[in-house]
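Final report, Chapter 2: Outcomes

The project's central promise was a pipeline that accepts a single protein chain and returns its three-dimensional structure in a standardized token representation, suitable for archiving and comparison. That pipeline is now operational. To close this chapter, we reproduce one record exactly as it appears in the project archive, with the input sequence first and the structure output second.
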Amino acid sequence: MTTLEDRKAAARKAAFARRKPAFETQAPGAAGKLSEVLAGYRGAPLSGFLPIRTEIDPVPAMAEASAHGPVGVPVIEAKGQPLKFARWEPDCTLVDGPFGAQIPEHQVYFEPEVLIVPLVAFSRDGGRLGYGGGFYDRTLELLRSRRPTLAIGFAFGAQEDVDLPLEETDQPLDLIVTEAEVITPAR
């Protein structure tokens, strides 16, 4: 019998296989649609991410947004805990953090209201499959319990999966932005 974890592992493997060629053949300006979306949230506390491996790169859009308000990146403090967000500037000094993601050398924490969320796979109805640690699910649940929090999934269109295995604890995305389109999930 195939378990949910087996289905998630298979979906991750397939998504990584689709993401790699999208990463290798991406055209310059992949973050253009993301910049357009973020223009509607000027000044709102925002978190992005510094890409690892073959993730799509949101840094150009984050740099543009940083001229209008605080921008941060996630910091993993411990397994099973929500993320914290450290203030990031385009020219700040970075150091290696957990899981190969870079973080600012000097961390000044804040709570974002808009999160650009990395992912392995997404569905058009707002489903997100991450790396399996549950960090963003825990974090979004916490932030959404305090105030409205917008989660924007940012990925290559090739990462779409029409049959994404999800569970109750998976937090939905409010928008999905790819290099080619902006998707508003129907709920």
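Archive annotation: The two ends are 31 Å apart (CA to CA).
This record, like all others produced under the grant, will remain available to the consortium after the project formally closes.
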